[in-house]
């Protein structure tokens, strides 16, 4: 069966909400079984891959990223590439060189980031599954803000071949959809070891029937710094879980507060090396003034074409790996990461999952974002960063609404145990009434 | 004078270090792919063979093999480096703390690691209108870097050391140094307290020249009562001098971080199970001691061919070393082109039989040589001779007839037979052994009494 694709409707949706930075203009002749979209940092033949950055303007990759290839092979039609913060650097998808996606529930508000376009498309297009990417919470955050389900698998579960790197030891390809059954259907499609990405090659087979039993843990550190509406909504959700027979314990995970600084050190350090290749010479924007020293040539392109946040993270990351600072920051962050992983594993001895709200507030308005300082923005990720830093699989599920805006909760499971998260999503779906944005009613 | 070297050699693999592109790319930019061009989204995958060769080299140089190794990113901006970082090894190379014996001197080996080569820049065009072209065929070619302690004492020794090392590695892992210029070396040299680094020297000849120049320069500086400045210099091949490196080209901070796309490799077990072939210089040392032959001769044999050395070892089990060497360096060597195939096929059995027969005296020198030629498939002139050959008898007799003084002499002095031997040898082009001739002379003389 080939699902009908209404290009005109898509175009209208995109004019209003801008989930896509590039999309198909005609439906190809071939049969397809489902439609999907991909975040712009996943390479796909037939589309540009710009990762939200002006520096990759015009770059058309000669190969498909493995997850895209697998989705296509399974009968998927790639509708387009979704908007994102430049290279994934942001929490609201406002750092894009190709338009800013608007929240499906309120276009004056942000979608979250950095997979904002993916969550926006999943919320607005019927029967849509979006490939998202998370480094420090870029699937959970927009899923929470856009009222959809975001699944971030274990680090290494899905091949990163063809994913434009942000922080290679942190980047994970995942799924965003309105429906848990889509996630259950497509997670096995994109998973599996890929000889083109060695970090995907030591995974145990994905077994969604394997479900952990036992109480859930809510770290008390995750209940601080929330807005009252988020705190209350999360409380109600926990209450609902308890009524449904799930035990929920409040636990203490004191090392979680170190996750954010460790994450920003590691992610920016890796990013500063990943972004070194963008210089206007081999792909993307082309600097034509060849008759200058290569340093000037590279500097000119990079100064003109990187956005402010990219430059900030390159500087931060370069600083952290310089002689004299490397031990203090980069190596220290590596050991902090191990400490936090250990703390999670300790909690998992007696608990099936770790539960918290996904974001400390509802999707902010664009004018509120404009007045936020970088550190405030970074702090917004304090709940999504710990599982990302430790490579643990996690899911963000809508758990309530405040002033018409969705609020999400995030469950974290031990490595390779995605089945437990999907089981939770299915159970939650039987008692929770998801809302669909007015725009697509 | 103290000299330390960082030697870079290409590892002989069929594909590149982190992708499957062939290493023998011909036309510029034809052996390239997303990975070795550093296209966004590409990932490196380690070539197992390259790691294996790295382990063999580290083991050969008696290094301590690190059980857990990983790769690092060395970040710097240069047009020939597609990702603007080179994947190399930093904290955890394949091997550390080894050593190598060179001409009786122990040269410390600080580390052995593997890394990828950048592309190649070519300057083309008329002077003043030159442009740079970049060939990425070389990008991602696997290299081994061998870092020595500053244990070398002269430019000549530094050159000879690399020369010997390359020979060893050619035998050990098949390293292919097409010409001496394909060795790339960074060298440290100090005359006094402070050391000076000369970077990116191409080829052994240039290395020796660069070091000689640098030694002279430093000596002059010191003689003038000045101090050596610690710096990085480069070698100008045209002018044959070293110059301070321009800008801060080599002094930047590379900001090493672990290569997160590759993870860690546990190689301890693998390294322990790796068995090394005996290398030529090591073999020559052993053969020289075991067979009691001169070291130089042993080297000459071993470096000529492995099968020639095999043959020598086999021969020495059957006949005295002296005899074996005499054959090996003489007739066997001169027929080597034709003999090598035969020996590879029969394990040397044919040749060994001949030498054995010769040593026991059951055949003559010349017969042995003819048989050797036959064995090598070379057409021989003349027929095998023996002591009872009538030709020799008549030749000896006619000589004795013509030289009565020799006959007279012979009765008192056996050495007088030498003139007969010389004559017969000359006339028959060495078909008969001297022993046979002497016997024949004795017999004929006795008939004349």
> What is the share of helical residues of chain B?
40-55%
Helix content of chain A: 25-40%
Q: Briefly note the structural class of the backbone of chain B.
A: alpha+beta
**Strand-residue proportion of chain B:** 15-25%
Give the tally of structural domains of chain A: 1
Quick gist of this model?
The complex is a heterodimer of chains A (about 450) and B (about 450). With about 450 residues, chain A is of the alpha/beta class.
Descriptive report:
The complex is a heterodimer of chains A (441) and B (449). By secondary structure, chain A is of the alpha/beta class. Chain A has helices at residues 7-17, 66-73, 116-124, 140-146, 180-190, 228-243, 259-274, 294-305, 308-320, 327-348, 366-370, 374-379, 385-389, 418-431, and strands at residues 20-23, 34-39, 76-82, 102-103, 106-110, 129-134, 149-152, 172-177, 216-219, 248-251, 353-357, 394-402, 405-412. The model of chain A has no long low-confidence stretch (mean pLDDT 96). Chain A has an 11-stranded mixed β-sheet with strand order 1-3-2-6-8-7-12-13-11-9-10, with helices on both faces. A two-stranded antiparallel sheet of chain A has the order 4-5. Chain A has one domain (7-254, 339-440): Amidase signature (AS) domain (Amidase signature (AS) enzymes), CATH 3.90.1300.10. Chain B is α+β, with helices and mostly antiparallel strands. The mean pLDDT of chain B is 89. Chain B has 15 helices and 16 strands. Chain B has helices at 48-60, 155-173, 204-223, 268-273, 280-291, 295-304, 306-318, 321-334, 336-346, 349-360, 365-375, 390-402, 404-412, 417-428, 434-448, and strands at 2-10, 64-65, 68-70, 72-75, 85-88, 95-102, 105-116, 120-124, 131-135, 142-148, 184-190, 196-202, 231-236, 241-244, 257-258, 264-266. A 9-stranded mixed β-sheet of chain B has the order 2-6-7-10-1-11-12-13-14. A 3-stranded antiparallel β-sheet of chain B has the order 5-4-15, with no helix packed on it. Chain A binds chain B through residues 41-43, 49, 51, 56, 59, 61-63, 65, 160-165, 167-169, 195-199, 202, 269-270, 272-273, 276-277, 279, 281-283, 290, 294-295, 298, 318, 321-323, 326, 330, and chain B through 34, 37-46, 73, 75, 77-79, 82-85, 131, 253, 255-257, 260-263.
């Amino acid at each position: 069966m080939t699902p009908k694709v209404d290009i005109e409707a898509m175009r209208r949706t995109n004019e209003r909400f801008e989930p896509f930075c590039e999309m198909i203009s005609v439906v190809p002749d071939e049969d397809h079984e489902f439609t999907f979209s991909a975040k712009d940092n996943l390479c796909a033949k037939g589309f540009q891959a710009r990762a939200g950055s002006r520096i990759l303007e015009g770059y058309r990759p000669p190969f498909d990223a493995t997850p895209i290839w697998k989705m296509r092979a399974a009968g998927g039609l790639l509708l387009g590439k979704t908007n994102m913060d430049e290279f994934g650097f942001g929490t609201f998808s406002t750092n894009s060189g190709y338009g800013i996606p608007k929240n499906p529930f309120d276009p004056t508000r942000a979608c979250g980031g950095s997979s904002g376009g993916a969550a926006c498309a999943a919320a607005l297009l019927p029967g849509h599954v979006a490939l998202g990417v998370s480094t420090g919470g870029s699937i959970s955050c927009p899923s929470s803000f856009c009222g959809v389900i975001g699944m971030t698998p274990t680090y290494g579960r899905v091949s990163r071949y063809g994913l434009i790197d942000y922080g290679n030891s942190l980047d994970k390809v995942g799924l965003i959809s309105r429906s848990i059954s889509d996630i259950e259907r497509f997670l096995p499609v994109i998973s599996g070891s890929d000889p083109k990405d060695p970090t995907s090659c030591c995974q145990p087979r994905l077994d969604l029937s394997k479900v952990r039993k036992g109480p859930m843990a809510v770290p008390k550190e995750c209940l601080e710094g929330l807005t009252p509406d988020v705190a209350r909504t999360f409380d109600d959700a926990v209450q609902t879980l308890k009524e449904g027979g799930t035990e929920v314990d409040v636990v203490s995970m004191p090392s979680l507060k170190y996750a954010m600084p460790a994450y920003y050190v590691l992610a920016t350090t890796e990013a500063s090396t990943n972004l070194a290749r963008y210089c206007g010479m081999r792909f993307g924007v082309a600097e034509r003034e060849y008759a200058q020293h290569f340093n000037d040539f590279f500097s000119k392109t990079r100064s003109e074409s990187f956005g402010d946040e990219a430059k900030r993270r390159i500087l931060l990351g370069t600083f952290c790996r310089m002689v004299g600072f490397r031990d203090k920051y980069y190596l220290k962050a590596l050991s902090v990461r191990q400490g936090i992983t250990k703390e999670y594993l300790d909690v998992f001895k007696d608990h099936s999952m770790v539960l918290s709200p996904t974001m400390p507030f509802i999707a902010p308005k664009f004018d509120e974002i404009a007045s936020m300082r970088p550190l405030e923005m970074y702090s917004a990720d304090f709940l999504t960063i710990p599982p990302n830093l430790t490579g643990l699989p996690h899911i963000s599920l809508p758990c309530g609404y405040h002033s018409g805006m969705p609020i999400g909760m995030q469950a974290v499971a031990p490595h390779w145990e995605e089945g437990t998260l999907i089981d939770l999503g299915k159970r939650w779906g039987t008692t929770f009434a998801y809302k669909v944005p007015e725009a697509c009613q | 004078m103290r000299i330390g070297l960082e030697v870079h050699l290409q590892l002989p693999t069929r594909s590149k270090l982190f992708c499957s592109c062939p290493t023998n790319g011909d036309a510029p930019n034809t052996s390239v792919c997303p990975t070795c061009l550093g296209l966004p989204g590409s990932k490196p995958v380690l070539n197992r063979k390259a790691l294996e060769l790295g382990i063999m080299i580290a083991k050969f140089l008696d290094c301590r093999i690190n059980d857990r190794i990983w790769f690092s990113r060395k970040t710097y901006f240069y047009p020939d480096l597609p990702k603007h970082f080179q994947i190399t090894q930093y904290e955890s190379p394949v091997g550390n703390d080894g050593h190598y014996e060179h001409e009786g001197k122990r040269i410390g080996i600080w580390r052995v690691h593997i890394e990828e080569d950048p592309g190649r820049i070519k300057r083309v065009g008329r002077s003043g209108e030159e442009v740079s072209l970049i060939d990425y065929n070389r990008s991602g070619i696997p290299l081994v870097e061998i870092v020595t302690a500053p244990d070398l004492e002269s430019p000549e020794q530094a050159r000879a050391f690399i020369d010997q090392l390359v020979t060893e590695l050619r035998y050990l892992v098949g390293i292919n140094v097409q010409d001496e210029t394909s060795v790339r070396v960074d060298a440290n040299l100090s005359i006094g307290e402070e050391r000076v680094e000369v970077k990116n020297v191409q080829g052994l000849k240039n290395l020796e020249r660069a070091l000689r120049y640098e030694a002279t320069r430093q000596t002059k500086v010191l003689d003038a009562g000045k101090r050596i400045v610690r710096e990085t210099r480069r070698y100008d091949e045209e002018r044959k001098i070293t110059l301070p490196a321009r800008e801060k080209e080599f002094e930047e901070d590379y900001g090493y971080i672990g290569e997160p796309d590759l993870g860690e490799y546990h190689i301890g077990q693998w390294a322990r199970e790796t068995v090394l072939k005996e290398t030529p210089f090591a073999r020559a040392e052993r053969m020289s001691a075991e067979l009691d032959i001169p070291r130089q001769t042993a080297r000459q044999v071993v470096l000529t061919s492995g099968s020639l050395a095999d043959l020598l070892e086999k021969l020495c089990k059957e006949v005295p070393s002296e005899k074996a060497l005499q054959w090996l360096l003489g007739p066997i060597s001169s027929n080597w082109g034709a003999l090598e195939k035969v020996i590879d096929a029969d394990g040397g059995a044919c040749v060994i039989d001949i030498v054995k027969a010769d040593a026991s005296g059951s055949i003559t020198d010349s017969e042995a040589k003819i048989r050797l030629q036959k064995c090598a498939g070379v057409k021989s002139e003349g027929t095998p001779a023996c002591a009872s050959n009538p030709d020799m008898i008549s030749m000896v007799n006619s000589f004795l007839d013509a030289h009565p003084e020799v006959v007279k002499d012979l009765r008192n002095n056996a050495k007088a037979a030498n003139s007969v031997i010389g004559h017969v040898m000359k006339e028959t082009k060495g078909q008969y052994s001297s022993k046979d001739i002497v016997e024949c002379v004795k017999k004929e003389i006795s008939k004349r009494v």
